[in-house]
Structure formats: structure tokens, C-alpha cells
Design brief:
Family: Belongs to the FliW family.
Helix content: under 10%
CATH architecture: Roll
Order of helices and strands: EEEEEEHEEEEE
CATH class: Mainly Beta
Structural class: mainly beta
CATH topology: BH3618-like
Number of strands: 11
Subcellular location: Cytoplasm
Largest sheet: 7 strands, mixed, barrel
Oligomer: single chain
Organism: Alkalibaculum bacchi
Subunit structure: Interacts with translational regulator CsrA and flagellin(s).
Number of helices: 1
Function: Acts as an anti-CsrA protein, binds CsrA and prevents it from repressing translation of its target genes, one of which is flagellin. Binds to flagellin and participates in the assembly of the flagellum.
Length: 147
């Protein structure tokens, strides 16, 4: 299947790789089908691209690539909505949506509302962490001392 994307032009995707977000992504509740697209020559970032609306794509990262102490607890009832049992969390991928700054150093990750994907049945959900110390804007590259 071919889709038009915001950043990579036309790409071929495998239908089995489509992730279904019943509730959409926050602010884009009418978009339900997305695919993860790798960025050539980049090991950290990828796009979560709508398969129906070419201009809707989110830059995402594995949060532990940048925040090794990131501690996220997903309640059992949320796991159940994704079809994941509490002892099967290895079936789940977690991503953070990135907001690009004027420079890459100013870019931030949303650690408050991670994107959860069941790797087995391809269900996805953006989940807001309750009572969390995390925010929607954590710098990917903390400032160096003296900057």
C-alpha cells in the first residue's frame, strides 16, 4: 500500500504495520490509523504518520534514548484497553512526541503523555500520566554548564 507522507513523500507501507488509535492522538481525535516510519540514517527519531492525512505526522522517540531515568507506570486498566496483561508489558512500545525548537538543542519531548503501542495487535493510545512530575516539554539536550 502506498501513502503520501508529510516529510518522506510517497512511501510503501505494509498494511499489517498500521497501528489503530481508537481515540486518536490528543488534538487529532479523528485520526485513527498511523504507521511508524523510520527516518533514513537516524537511529533515534521516527515519524508516527497518519495513513489518511499526509500532513499529520508526529516526530517521536523512545524516551529512554534521551531520559534514561524516565519512570512511567501505566495502570492495569489502561493496559487492558490495549489488550496487554500486566505481566506482558514487553509487548508494549512507548514513544514520546517531540516538538522541534528553532534549533535541535531547543527541541523537547512530551513525557507527560506517552504514546503506547501494543506490538502484537497494533492498538495504540496516547495516555496522560496522572499525578506526574513530568511535563509536556522536557529538553532532549539539557543545557551545558555555562551556556
Amino acid at each position: 500500500m502506498q501513502i503520501e507522507t508529510k516529510y518522506l513523500g510517497q512511501v510503501d507501507i505494509i498494511e499489517e504495520n498500521i497501528k489503530y488509535f481508537e481515540m486518536g492522538i490528543l488534538g487529532f481525535e479523528d485520526e485513527h490509523e498511523f504507521v511508524l516510519l523510520e527516518i533514513p540514517n537516524n537511529d533515534h527519531f521516527c515519524f508516527l504518520q497518519s495513513i489518511h492525512t499526509s500532513y499529520i505526522a508526529f516526530l517521536v522517540v523512545n524516551p529512554w534514548d534521551f531520559f534514561e531515568d524516565y519512570d512511567v507506570e501505566i495502570p492495569d486498566e489502561e493496559l487492558k484497553k490495549l489488550g496487554i496483561l500486566p505481566d506482558q508489558q514487553n509487548q508494549m512500545a512507548i514513544y514520546s512526541i517531540v516538538t522541534l525548537g528553532d534549533t535541535l538543542k531547543e527541541s523537547t519531548a512530551n513525557l507527560l503523555a506517552p504514546v503506547l503501542i501494543n506490538l502484537e495487535d497494533k492498538k495504540g493510545k496516547q495516555f496522560i500520566l496522572n499525578d506526574s512530575l513530568y511535563a509536556t516539554k522536557h529538553k532532549l539536550f539539557p543545557q551545558e554548564i555555562g551556556e
